[in-house]
Amino acid sequence: MSGQGCFINGKWVAAESGTLEALDPATGAVITEIARGGPKEVEAAVSAAREAMSGDWAQWPAVERGRVLSRLGALIADQHEAIAKIECRDTGKPLSQARNDITATARYFEYYGGAADKLHGEVIPYQDGTTVMVQREPYGVCGVITPWNYPAQVFGRTVGGALSAGNSVVLKPAEEACLSVLTLAELAADAGLPAGALNVVPGLGVEAGAALASHPGIDHLSFTGSPATGTAVARSASERHVPLTMELGGKSAQIVFADADLDRAAETAVRAIVQNAGQTCSAGSRLLVERAASDAMVSRLAERFSALICGPGLEDLDCGPLINGAQKARLESMLERGRAAGMQILAVGRVAEDAPAAGHFVPPMLISGIPADHEVAQEELFGPVLTVFEFDDADEAVALANGTEFGLVTGLWTRDASRALALPRRLQSGQVFVNNYGAGGGVELPFGGVKRSGYGREKGFEGMKSFTTMKTVVLRH
Ligand code: NAD
Q1: pLDDT at 439
Q2: What's the domain range around 70?
Q3: CATH code, 387
């Protein structure tokens, strides 16, 4: 049953509505079937998670929770190559990128395993004759809804943070790609996580996802996905005033000043957009370059883009396919409207000659000539397309960088130390990378957005705190 069921209370359970096909984005072939969970399975999963919170799991000392999570990290590291291949085939991303994702997933559990017994409260000086303690407590049952682009990594940061803080979890992974998540759920049980502490209900967003977002037994919701779905989830959670973390999209800019190390900036800018075929919330999808360095930067980028090759993830080329035909059609129609608005193609890579015709491949592209208010400049394209804009001074660079509704990650490239220190304050962005770009950064770094990119933080210690509430205890002596 394993891959085809829902993981509820430590067992694989068939879904009443049957199964969905898991498709290979590189070939269109069916890889396997996954469960089509719905309200009934969500109900069972929430009740198992609730039971875990009123049973043993809630009594586990923090150090024991930490040990189980660390063991899970070690099991993931042991099975690294096998899980990376599952992730590669399911999402379409090049194998070396999938390997990096699984390394990061193991690292999340190592990190949150170590963090479990380091979370503590505070004592606040208050009136004479009182002692005030602020205690950190788990919320209880955490609902977690995740996207298809980084299934294993988002599993690591959400499940790792929530379990480390002492919650139980019901996870609804994305229907487009969730095979690694199913493997990880089983490994968590092998690591010694008690039944009910982690439950996974695959299925469609409008069925399993909506049922989870509106379930009255959920105490906290973590949503990672598109802004539009985030609105629906937040609306549903607001009916019951359930606290939320919203990790949404981005339109991240790389700002390159003329004094920057252009070779490093160009190399990093290419990686930041081609990674996962541009299907990354923090993809560096806009390049803002100081006019004086524009020709030099564009020629460096054009040379690199022209050499990029797309193909199946297992062949480990520069770029894999998009996740499905709908995503490819959406991107192509946005680019078509961009052409009508004056878009120029400065350089384009190619699809490998032997790539399967049914794969959803789009060659990486460097473009310019897009008006700053056009949808291509404003909305997530979710494809390997980098748009170039020019600026004349720092004020114009900041205005362009802040000039979308998103605010997730910004890259800043300069050798001027005062600019490197002063500009990050002016950027509306959850993370700013100066002279490097981490596309989300390491597991230790708090991550999340401002504006339409969302609110709340995951990753790092801050991410663990997001899965806790505070209780203020005022004690009169
Ligand atoms: P999506 O919003 O379509 O789906 C995300 C999840 O929500 C899936 O599990 C889906 O099944 C579920 N869902 C869909 N409809 C639902 C509903 N009505 N109620 C409840 N759940 C529902 O997003 P996607 O296409 O899977 O992922 C791409 C998006 O995710 C992009 O916008 C990307 O920027 C964003 N993303 C953000 C981050 C971040 O950390 N900020 C990380 C990865 C992806």
Answers
A1: 59
A2: 5-247+453-476
A3: 3.40.309.10
